[in-house]
Structures are given as structure tokens and as C-alpha cells.
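Quick one:
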Amino acid sequence: MSVATLSTLLTHAFHRPYAVPAFNVTDLASVQGVLDAAERTSSPVILQFSERVARALGPRTIAAFFRSMTEHLPVPAALHLDHCRDAGLAMEALRCSWNSVLYDASDDDFEDGLRTTAALVSTARAHGADVEGEFERIGRLADGHGAPDDDSAHDRALEFIRRTGVTCFSPDVGTLHGDYTGPPTIHTRRIARLASASGVPQVLHGASGIPPETLHGTLELGVAKVNFSTALKHGHRAAVTAFMAGSGSRPWDPLRLHQTVRASVSERAERCIGTVASAGHAC
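Output:
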């Protein structure tokens, strides 16, 4: 099974009551922890690297590492570049055999962002890869700006999807990146309208703090990819904190720390898999 394209994973999930979990990872322990959870639950999985991490480690190094880690994996996995504002880096990732990239055009003029995204889609197709589209600033609705049922925003999103040919789309529907200060209001009607009108899977960002029952409600509306980052960071930090507190005067043991972080991240990832109902959907 091992490596899969983003379009293959999302096509299977679209219009079914589950979504593919996409986890932001940073190191060997977090990658192993996520893959452990996916294998235990027989869930498809997307490993995401942020632009910052991709720059630090290098797209070619990450691609080789990913291929090695998933060579004998019994569940399908895809490698994805998350929230990249640098088209050059996104192009490099595609040429290094990454399965997909998200070009974040939220800082661009609409037409400029559209053209850049469309160019990336053309390159991606030439390499058997996919592009996730985004031009709305995630968190704007949650901050009280704009209206979720604005027809002009809906029409503009459809225009962006149609003219770029993206595989999936990330709308602003009331989520936030990072920690929530209270229960978020997810604008499910907007998700349903966009998915129905475009026929394209929708992506939910900032899912770590969304109550499971709220998240479940989006899965039959066209959400096929759900992003988790903060949940894994909390697991990573909790493991390191507990390890440091329990180390005392014992000799420093980097391997034991790695194993502790791996187990903690894996446990958090398995919880996330449960919230998107992807267990048993390895295809």
C-alpha cells in the first residue's frame, strides 16, 4: 500500500462519513508516532511538513526519508507541504517527488495567487502530484471579520477552484490555527455549499481544538482532509516535560527521550484518527 497520491486518498473519503487525518510532523519521533497510530488503526494518513521545517531539513532529504519510512507500511500515506507561501519551494518539493503541496495565497492579490496556484497545479500534474488551494486567511471569520454566508465570497471561492484546478480547497469556516480560547463556531453551511457546488473535497484546518461532535458533523458535508498540528505539539511537549521531571540525576538518555516522545505523539494521533472516523479505511 504505502505511498498514495492525495487525490486517491481524498476521492475515497469524499462523500463518505470520514476524513483523512493530516498531521504536521517535525522529526523522526513524531513521524514514527503518527505512522504507529495509522498502522494500529488501519487508517490512511497524510504526513505534513510546514514551510519552516521543510526549509530546515530540505525537501529532497524529507522526500527520501518519507520513502524509506513508508516502504513497507501496510496503510496508504502521502507526503504534503503545508502552508507554503514560497512558490519556488513548493515547486522544488514537487520536483523532489512530494505527493502534494498547499500554496497559501492569502497574502497575494487574488489574480496573482490564482495564477501562481494554477502554475503549481500544472507542475504537480506533470509529476503525478496534487495541489491544495487556499486564498482566504484562515481565522478571519473566527476573529469576527466577514460573513460566512456571503455570496460574493462563495462565488470567488468557486472561481478560484475552477480556474486553478486544485485537488482540494481550504476555506475559512471559523477555525483557527493554535489553541482555542473557547468552543469554535464552525460554519457548516459554507462547507456544504462549497463542496456541493465545486465537487471538490474541502479541507479543515485548525482541527486540534474542535470538539469531536462538532468535527463529526463536518464529515458528511464534503470535508475529506482534516489537519492536526497543535494536538501533536502538546503531546510532544508533555512527553519532554515528564521525561525531564523524571530524569533526576540519571545519565542523559536521548534514545529513551525519543521513545517517550514517539509514544506520546502516537497516542495523540490515535485520538485524532478517532475524531475523523478514518480507522479501518486504509484502501
